Please model this.
Amino acid sequence: MKNYARGGNVPYRWEDPLFKGVTFLFALFILLLTLFIAFSLLVHATPAIKKFGFEFLWGTTWDPVSEQFSALPFLYGTLITAVIALLTAVPIGLFVSIFLSEFSPRWLSDPISYLIDLLAAIPSVIYGIIGLFVLVPLMRGNIEPALSNSIGFLPVFQGPFYGVGILTAGLLLSMMILPFIISISREVMLSVPQTQREAILSLGATQWEMVYKVVMPLSRSGIIGSIFLALARALGETMAVTMVIGNNPDIPLSFFEPGHTMAAVIANEFTEAASELYLSALIEIGLILFLVSFVVNGIARILIPGGVRAA
Amino acid sequence: MGGVISKNINDEQSYAILGCIIKVNNNYLMRKILNISIFSISTICTIFTLSLLFFVFSYILYQGITALSWDFFTKLPAPIGEGGGGMAHAIIGTMKLLFVAVLIGFPVGLMGGIYLSEFGGRLFPAGRGRFVYSVRYAADLLNGIPSIVIGIFVYIVVVLPMKHFSTLAGGIALGIIVIPIVLKGTEEFLRLVPSTLREAGLALGMAKWKVILTIVVPTAFPGVATSMMLGIARVSGETAPLLFTAFGNRYFSSGWLSPTASLPAMIYTYSISPYSNWKQQAWAGGTVLLVLVLLTNALSRMLLRRKKLRTQ
Model:
């Protein structure tokens, strides 16, 4: 037997560095891939960027025939559907995570969160057909008339009932982002030390006072992070939105009317883009989507404490 | 605060202390009512969320079971106007796409994860740590990029140079989506392996690469495999990146360089079509896809719950 302990006769002189080098290359590949995605989007968006400049961001015409492209209708549609989705999903999601982390015992809360996580696994095209065949008729026949009758004095709830439209897309999105808010918020709330809860309960506080004064403040950053993560999902969601938003490159005042989003316009028109400028304009929209999701995900990453994982 | 309070305090005193910490309504009944109503609201919200899941699942099954038949799995789409037909080509297409995705996503994710967990981190000076940090950041970003943007990227780097849509391009797009999922899973579960196991191997004189490949990775394998299954479950339902990479096909795709149909893309085209026969087929496809994805997801996460690691 060789005496490996003695200096000089170092075993595995090359195998270890080789293995390390190979794994390093794969890690490097992931880094370069991400940079390369940004770079190639930028390169192929250049013709549109050069032609339209910043006009692209606040112009409202999207006319492939006369090759006039600007993205405001899509930016608006993406933003407003995401806002509607957050406005509905955040309150519900917070109540559910309060229930799961504070009110229900662990034996009940664990299986329920397991099921709710399944909601996140449903493919978006499935949400799309549910939206198209169930939600759209429901919106046209029941929800939109009801909204119009009750709070129709608001301009956003006026006009004819299309069924497909901004509000429908927003509500469908809220269904899709709900599990992200719930699973992260619940975990963040569960990580609040039990002693903190017991301290205030022992003084006679009710459970709600405990949640409101102790649990929520301590988990605030994680909860906000989960909302940002959900926002990122909502901004980039493609298929389900494409199927129910109506694909109308306009900025309608009413939420009942069809609109368009950045992801939806790419999905709809990418294969039809005949000219280089058209394609480049679509890629520029993709680039904007990339940058927005970079920022929003970055914020979520900072806010959500390490160790808490998304569904 | 704690130090000042004596051990024996009565209810009134504790109530006074509570009043110092938070604003308390003097009406005890009101506080009780508020508490109960919040409890009720949160219970209702939970039931509502769960019923969403059951509704989606049962509605798809209900619509799909009537539309499903043996033909669905064995036949090609029928011409417009004729009834019947199936999505055999889309099922095969999805399998081919997943095969390419696995071929790309698993090795890159696994090896990258090994680097992050075994060679990155505390052992090395700050310079190397920055690299590890940026790889993690890039993986998070990659995970967060809308899948349609990945589709554009693959269109630019694969479809444009080859001048046609292909199974290969679609598979590459899905593979890129799988990478960060497997990477994060691998890193996380390798980190859970106790360092004593590594040290035991090293103490016996094993090379580090051998310790990693024969001790660390096998120990963490259940977790790593779960993250791989979750990655497959995630991409098998992806539609957006396939629209302009794998494109679509009315027939079986030949080889790897021709466009191919896939289950999610077929569901999309069929559901927005005006023909009722096609819509029926879309429900059938939705059922197959949903059962496939949820089963993979549910099973792998259940396994994960059972045994996080073999050592535990």
